Amino acid sequence: MKKQWEQTQGIYIHIPFCMQKCLYCDFASFAGKNGLMHQYALALANEIRRRAAEMPVSERATLYFGGGTPSLLPIDDLKIIINALKETKLWREPAEVTMEMNPGTVDFANFASIGKWALIGSASAFKV
Ligand code: SF4
Hints:
Elements: E1 8-15, E2 17-18, E3 30-31, H1 37-51, E4 57-67, H2 75-87, E5 97-99, H3 108-118
Parallel strand pairs: 1-4, 2-3, 4-5
Helix pairs in contact: 1-2
The chain binds iron/sulfur cluster.
Residues 18, 21-22, 25, 27, 29, 67-69 line the site of iron/sulfur cluster (SF4).
């Protein structure tokens, strides 16, 4: 068992999809690949389950979705990823969740539905 300071305190999930590729951007991000989002979420969930035992993660580890434009990801695909993290106990509620967003891609009705889904036991995750 790793000591608290030896454990990962935050989990970063990269969502590499964007509406367009900005000229100045060096991030791993791709435009015109949105058709791969579901496959990406499934592959990521598989990788999380396969590698979970190798990752010493604190019980209070936070979760950060970066990109790319994570807010482009459909809610059902986001749930696939979060479910894998919860199943493997890499992320536990009510630890904080943060997501980078392009306001133009946020459907607030959908966002509220994430909140209801993710808010079990947490008062602040995904609150807008
Ligand atoms: S990650 Fe940000 S800066 Fe890079 S291409 Fe996507 S929107 Fe543009």
